[in-house]
Amino acid sequence: MKQEAILDSKLSLGALIGKTVNDAATASEAAAAAAKHLSGVTVHADSADTVHLVVPAAVDTARLAAADESYFEELGRKALGACYYDILPE
């Protein structure tokens, strides 16, 4: 039951994001609605030619102070996880 609720939430969020990308007239409305599903996350409507970064709301200062390389990699993967190139740059 819980998995179905999570799936429904993800599907509705995906539909709102698709609406944002495909219909510029409703972009701000869809972004505001999507923000309701994501507590603590600001959703900005933008175009397909911009880079999407995910910025953590809180940073683990202990791991940061310890210069934990795996933590830096984790932050990088989260920040750029949705970014990809159709053609890799040289």
How does this structure look, described?
With 90 residues, the chain is mostly helical. It has one domain. The chain has four helices and no strands. The termini are far apart.
Please render the helix and strand layout as text.
Layout: H1 2-22, H2 27-37, H3 61-65, H4 69-80
Unreliable stretches, pLDDT < 50, 5 or more residues? none
Helix percentage range: 40-55%
Average pLDDT level:
70
Number of strands: 0
What overall form do the CA principal axes indicate? extended
Instruction: Give the strand content.
Output: under 5%
Q: What is the radius of gyration computed over CA atoms, rounded to a whole number of angstroms?
A: 16 Å
Q: How many structural domains in the coordinates?
A: 1
Q: Give me the secondary-structure category.
A: mainly alpha
Biggest sheet overview = none
Give the distance, in angstroms, between the N- and C-terminal Cα atoms. 47 Å
Q: Can you write the helix and strand succession as a string?
A: HHHH
Q: Please count the helical segments.
A: 4
Protein traits:
extended, 4 helices, 90 residues, mainly alpha
Summarize the structure.
The chain is mainly alpha-helical and 90 residues long. It has one domain (1-80). The protein is built from 4 helices and no strands.
